[in-house]
Amino acid sequence: MAKPRSGFATSSDTHSSCTLLLGCRHTTHKIMTRIFLVTGTSSGFGAELVKYVLEQGDYAVATSRDSSKLEKPAKATDDNYLAVDMDVTSPDSIKAAFDKGLKKFGSITHVINNAGFGLSGEFESLPDKLIRQQCEINFFGVLNVTREALEVMREKNKQKGGFIQQITSIGGQTGVPLFSIYCATKWAVEGFTEALAQELKPEWNITLQCIEPGGFATGWSSHNMIYPSKSDKCQAYDHLDGESAMKKRHGTQVGDPAKAGKAMYDFAVMSNPPFRAVLGSDAHGRIMKKIDDYQGLYTKFESQSKATDRDDK
Question: Cα dihedral sign for 45, 227, 241, 184?
């Protein structure tokens, strides 16, 4: 099979720009052929994104802990699609998946960090084992994949460069009750990515982005959600029940997963993509309220904040 012609524009076609609010640099690049590697593609956002990638005539490496269980998209062929196993907690597994993608397609131009799971419950009801499992997959898993992606895009792609999109959550910008650890992992990914974006050399031509979805009817709240056992329930929290709350919410979310997959693709291929973007009217409303709250809070206490400066400065 002939490998797709892939790569990025020359330096004359690229530029770096700074986002005033975020202080993050991103690079604009023009891609001739796109090869997406997507984590967590067994259902939800990942599955929808892979479908849309193939519908656009691009190439996809779909990863899952057990790729044999993945449903092959209608547009998938032996030439444009590769399903591979990947455990995001295992650097060896990640490297093997990237190597298979490189062997088949020659380059990996876009990496979408989508793998993760939900953990719902009062903080004091969550056993340490579940907390650490959440952090290993939702945070350290993203770090592991991002580390491999950076090396591939800088050292192994036919033409240097690439795009890394982190699928975080509106819970990575606003705290959500009963999701304290989940939110903590998403905030961690946001902070990590914002800092990392400022460490990369412009000539590497690597762009980073955070996508922050709100509520979507993906089935995430049912088959991809873990709750503490009844025996672990801290009785002081008799006013809260995470499992009942999520079951009532299941299927009522305003977001359409297929539209989310399209939006993720569109944000990933923009000529001048934003560093952050929310998905869903609910998420947009919450982030705008958060911005307003921040503006009011920091303005109100501006004098106290500035009063801590040294007198000789």
Answer: negative
Indicate the length of the chain as a whole number: 313
* Helices marked H in 43-179: 44-55, 91-105, 128-135, 141-151
CB 119 within 8 A of CB 232: no
Q: What is the pLDDT of residues 38-64, one digit of tens each?
A: 999 999 999 999 999 999 999 999 999
**Residue found under tokens 């509520």:** 215
pLDDT, tens only, 167-218: 999 999 999 999 999 999 999 999 999 999 999 999 999 999 999 999 887 7
* Distance from C-alpha of 197 to C-alpha of 131, rounded to nearest angstrom: 27
Long-range contacts, stretch 77-82, CB < 8 angstroms, 24+ apart = 78/1, 79/1, 80/54, 81/50, 81/54
The predicted model scores a pTM of: 0.89
Residue 233, amino acid: K
d(CA 285, CA 290): 9
H/E stretch holding 187 reads helix 180-197
DSSP state of 2: P
Q: Work out the burial of residue 240: count CB atoms within 10 Å of its CB; fewer than 13 is exposed, 13-18 middle, 19 or more buried.
A: middle
Map out the domains of the chain with their CATH numbers.
Answer: 35-306 (3.40.50.720)
